[in-house]
Amino acid sequence: MPETKPVLMQGNEACALGAINAGVRFYAGYPITPSTEVAEQMAARLPEIGGVFIQMEDEIASMAAVIGASIGGMRTLTATSGPGFSLKQENLGYAIMAEIPCVVVNVQRMGPSTGVPTAPAQGDVMQARWGTHGDHPIIVFTPASVYESYYLTIAAVNLSQKLRQPVIVLLDEVIGHMREKVTIPEGKLMVEKSSDKVPSDWKPYDEKGLTPLVPFGFGHYYHVTGLFHDQYGFPTGDPPQVERALDRLHNKLEKYRDEIVLTNYIGHKEPRVAIVTYGCTVRSARAVVKKAYWQNRLPVGLLSLQTVWPFPAKEIEALAKQADVIIVPEMNMGQLVGEVERYARGEAKVVPLNRYDGEMISPDQISEEVGRWL
Amino acid sequence: MEQLTQDFLRTKKLPHIWCPGCGNGIVTAALVRAIERTGFDQKDVVIVSGIGCSSRAAGYLNFNTLHTTHGRALAFATGLKMARPELKLFVIMGDGDCSAIGGNHFIHSARRNIDLNAIIVNNHIYGMTGGQHSPLTPTGKKATTAPRGTLEPSFDLLELAKGAGATFGAKGNAAQPRQLEQLIIRAANHKGFSVVEALSPCPIAYGRRNKLGGAVDMLRDMKEKSISVEKAANLDEAELKDRTVNGVLYAIDAPEFAESYYHSIGKEIG
User: Fold this and answer.
1) Residue in A with minimal Cα distance to B88
2) Could you tell me the domains of chain B?
C-alpha cells in the first residue's frame, strides 16, 4: 500500500481522523478538557464532507444524540473526559442493552471529581468496565501512541458496527495531547453501509444470533427499548427470556473474542520479569525493555494491552507460566493489577507499580522495580 | 367516533398496562388519528418516548418506535432528526419526564427550534412510581412525596417553551379528544419545535389522594375549566382565574435547525 509522507499529529486529532476515515459522519459532544480537540476537529471536518456535528447541552444529551443518529443509520462518535464520562454512563448502558453501535472516546484525566483537569491519569479503567449499572459487556481499547489512536478508533468503529456494541476508546491525557510523527496509509478503507436490504424474516434481536441493524425509516417497524426485550424488541419480564437476552449480549463478545482482544509482546522469549501495561505507560515500559533486553539481553519482556476489556485473560495465563514476576505499572492506585493477579492464578508473583500524582511513570521507576526482581 | 386505523396499532401488544380511568389511551388515540390525517407515510413516522406511564404508548404503535431513558427522549430525537431530517418525529413524554429530569433537553430543543413534535401528557404526577409530585403538580396538591401538599410553584410549560424559543405551543386535554387531535395535526404540520401539552386524568395516583373523584369527575372538571383561546381573548385575568386556555397559543415562523444545518453544508433534505 502506498504511503503518504509523515505528518505531525496529536492523539486527539488522530482519533478524529480515524473516525472520519472509518465512516463516522455524526458527532455530538460537549466541551471538556482534555478531549476538546476531538470535537474541534469534527466540527471543522464533518460539515465539509456532508456529516453532522452538533454541540449538545450536556454529556447526557451527547450520548443520547449519537444513539439516535446511529438508529438513523449513521456511524457515530462522541468524546469526553472524566466528569463527562460519568454523565455518559446512563445512555451508554442503553446503547449496550438496545445493541446500538457507537464509539465513545474518554481522554482520561486526574480524578476523582474535577481533580486535576490538565493532568494525566489512568484512573477510569474500572469505570470503563463497570461505570454503567447492571451486568453488561463492554469493549475498551487503550492506545499507546498517536498512530494507535488512529487505528484503534477505526477498529472501534468497525467492531461497534459488526457487533452492534458500544466501544470505548480509553485515551489518556498524555496520548491525547502528545504530538508524534505518523504515517497514515493511503487508499480508502472499506466501509460497509447500513441498508434496508435484509431478509424478509429479519428480526432486530434475532434469537439465532447477530443481525445487522436496519435503520429507522425503511418500513421495518420494530421497537427499541432499554427494557429487557424479545427478539422483536418488545418488553419482557419473563425470566427465561430475560436470562437469554443477557446471555446474548455477552455471548457475542465471547464469540468474537479473538478479533476484539489485541495485545503485543516484545522482549525475551522466556522472561523472568514481565511488565504488563497499557496506554501511555507502555511508552516508559518499552524504553525499559529496549535497554534491559535489546541492549543487555536480560530476561525481561513487555505485554502491552491495546484491549483492556474484555480482559486478555488467556494472554496473562500464558505469560504467568513463563515469568516469575509480573510488574503492572499503572497511573492509578492499582486497578487492572487485580485482573492480572486473578489470571496469573498464582503461577507468577504479581507486583503493582503505581503513581497517582498527575505525572507519568518514568522508565527509571519501572527499571528500578525490574532490577529488584532480576 | 370512527374506528382507529389498525395499521398504526400493534394490536397483539394490547391490552395496555394503563390503569382504569387513565387518560393515556385517549391521548394516544388522538395521536394515531392525527398521524393518519396528516397523510404522512407510515415508514417516515418515528415515535420516540421517555420513561413513565405515557411513554409506554410507543410500544403499542406500529411505527419505528424508540423508548429511551428517563428525560432523554428529546436528546435521542435530536440525534435521529439531524441524521435523518426527512423523518417525522413525535416525542411522547410525561410531565415529570419532560419538565424535571428532561428540563434541560426540553429548553434546548426549543432554543434550537428543531422540527420535533413534543406531546407532553400532563397528569400532574409521577404515576408509574406511585404518585410523587412533579414540576407540573399545582401548588398545594398532595403527593406521596408531598403528603401535606406541595409548596413548590409549578411551571407554565408552554410559556417556558416559548421563552426558550419554541415556535408552536398548544394545549388540549383528554376530555376533548377531537380538539386534541386537531392540535397535534397542526403541530405536525408546523416546521420547528412544537409543543402540545395534553392534560390527562390520573385518578389512581393523583385524583384519589387529592379527592378529585373518579376518572369521569376529573374529565368533567377538565372540560368545564377549559376555555378556547378565542373566547379567552375577550376575558380579563380575574375571569380567567382557574380556567385552562385551550387551543393554539402561539405559532411563530422562524428558521428550523435541521434545515438550517443542511442548508449550511449545501445538502438537500430528503
Assistant:
1) A217
2) 22-226+244-253 (3.40.50.970)
The answer to whether B43 contacts A234, with C-beta atoms less than 8 Å apart, is no
Residue pointed to by grid coordinates 478503507: A189
Instruction: Encode pLDDT of B31-71 as tens digits.
Output: 999 999 999 999 999 999 999 999 999 999 999 999 999 99
- The CA distance from B250 to B84, in Å, is 27
Examine the domain organization and report whether A221 and A270 are in the same domain.
Answer: no
Answer yes or no: do A39 and A86 share one domain.
yes
Q: Answer yes or no: do A108 and A125 share one domain.
A: yes
Cell numbers placing A218: 425503511
Q: Encode pLDDT of B212-226 as tens digits.
A: 999 999 999 999 999
Domain closes at, from A260, A285, A303: A260
Select from A64, A221, A226 the Cβ nearest to the Cβ of B64: A221
Quote the cell numbers at residue A2: 502506498
Give the torsion through C-alpha atoms of A286, A287, A293, A299, to 10 deg. Answer: -60
Q: CA B70 to CA B93: how far, in whole Å?
A: 9
Q: Which amino acid is at B211?
A: K
What range defines the domain where residue A45 resides? 1-260
A81 and A30, same structural domain?
yes
CB contact under 8 A, A223 and B46: no
Q: So what's the ipTM on this one?
A: 0.97
